[in-house]
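Ops channel
N.P.: pipeline sanity check, posting one input/output pair.
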């Protein structure tokens, strides 16, 4: 079985999405006022919503870009709440045929939000149906084939498409240009994650010290979904081993048990960095080669694993591939100079 690591990761992502629906439903903020952080995109949306409500119009189409778990789906639901409209959700991979999309579009009512997750995965033929729908609020049905082909234009209600993507660069430019508002979500600041962890602990009724929230927040990879997941792991540990209260030592012990270090790196993150250091002498190593060595799908490496390592400066992206930084070597306690100099021959191995 190759790629079982990717399957595990993707399973974890979708399990978490499902868990969000069950007991984490309450953790999902419902209003812009409850949505922590991301001040700039939130302000853009707040203004757009207020203006649209004032003019009694629907919102322009919105594209949200950023790594998984940063709150794109949450924002889409909040926008629907704030606009007092219904939200219909789908995802790029689920829209296999033009007909799938037509069915959803023709059922939309005036002002509805149509949310497409992973919009960069929409098949090309389906994407082409989306253009007239977004621009003219119409879809073209084609009857018969060849010389007998006839098209019938079907009018749609004015709706708002919200697309979420982890890879905005993969979107074709005609699709991208049809969004009136395009916003990037970035990893969260530590103090925002502390607020998220405290808010979630309050909702889940878990007693927690301020320092406990801080220890969880700083291991959360700048990501609210991870913060909520770690909080649940620490809550279990606290209940079984520590009278139910999350203190700093309890959080540290619980997360060490999960293989998460003080920077929030998991075993997989460390394995990636060590592979570059030991198998490729610090790099550059091609992303495909790394994915194969780690038995991961390239997309998982690109979308789920590496963004945080790049952001934190553990990994450096170059045109030839990925390199580890001095910071990564320090973190893993592997001497930096020796590894790199050996590669460039300064220690005499390659004159
Ligand atoms: P994405 O769609 O970007 O993968 P989600 O919207 O599903 O991410 O967010 C994952 C979880 O993180 C949500 O269920 C929610 O509980 C939490 N979350 C995301 N953004 C925020 C935020 N700004 N404030 C509080 N919680 C958040």
């Amino acid at each position: 079985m190759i790629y079982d690591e990717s399957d595990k990761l993707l399973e974890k992502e979708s399990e978490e999405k499902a868990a969000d629906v069950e007991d984490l439903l309450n953790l999902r903020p419902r209003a812009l006022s409850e949505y922590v952080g991301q001040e700039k995109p939130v302000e853009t949306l707040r203004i757009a919503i207020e203006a649209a409500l004032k003019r009694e119009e629907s919102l322009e189409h919105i594209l949200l870009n950023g790594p998984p778990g940063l709150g794109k789906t949450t924002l889409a639901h909040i926008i629907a709440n704030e606009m007092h409209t219904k939200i219909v959700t789908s995802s790029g991979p689920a829209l296999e045929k033009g007909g799938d999309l037509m069915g959803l579009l023709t059922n939309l009512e005036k002002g509805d939000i149509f949310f497409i997750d992973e919009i960069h995965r929409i098949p090309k033929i389906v994407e082409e149906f989306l253009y007239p729908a977004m621009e003219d609020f119409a879809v073209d049905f084609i009857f018969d084939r060849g010389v007998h082909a006839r098209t019938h234009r079907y009018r749609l209600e004015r709706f708002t498409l919200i697309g979420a993507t982890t890879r905005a660069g993969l979107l074709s430019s005609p699709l991208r240009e049809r969004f009136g508002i395009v916003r990037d979500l970035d990893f969260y600041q530590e103090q925002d994650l502390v607020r998220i962890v405290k808010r979630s602990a309050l909702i889940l009724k878990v007693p927690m010290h301020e320092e406990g929230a801080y220890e969880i927040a700083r291991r959360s990879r700048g990501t609210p979904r991870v913060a909520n997941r770690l909080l649940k792991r620490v809550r279990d540990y606290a209940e079984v081993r520590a009278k139910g209260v999350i203190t700093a030592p309890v959080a540290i012990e619980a997360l060490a048990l999960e293989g998460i270090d003080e920077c929030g790196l998991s075993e997989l993150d460390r394995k990636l960095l060590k592979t570059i250091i030991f198998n490729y002498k610090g790099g550059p190593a091609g992303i495909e080669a790394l994915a194969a060595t780690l038995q991961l799908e390239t997309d998982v490496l690109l979308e789920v694993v590496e963004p945080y390592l790049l952001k934190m400066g553990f990994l450096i992206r170059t045109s030839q591939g990925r390199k580890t930084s001095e910071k990564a070597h320090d973190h893993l306690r592997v001497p930096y100079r020796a590894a790199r100099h050996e590669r460039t021959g300064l220690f005499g191995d390659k004159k």
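N.P.: looks fine end to end. Strands lie at 62-65, 87-91, 113-117, 138-143, 150-155, 160-165, 181-184, 315-318, 321-324.
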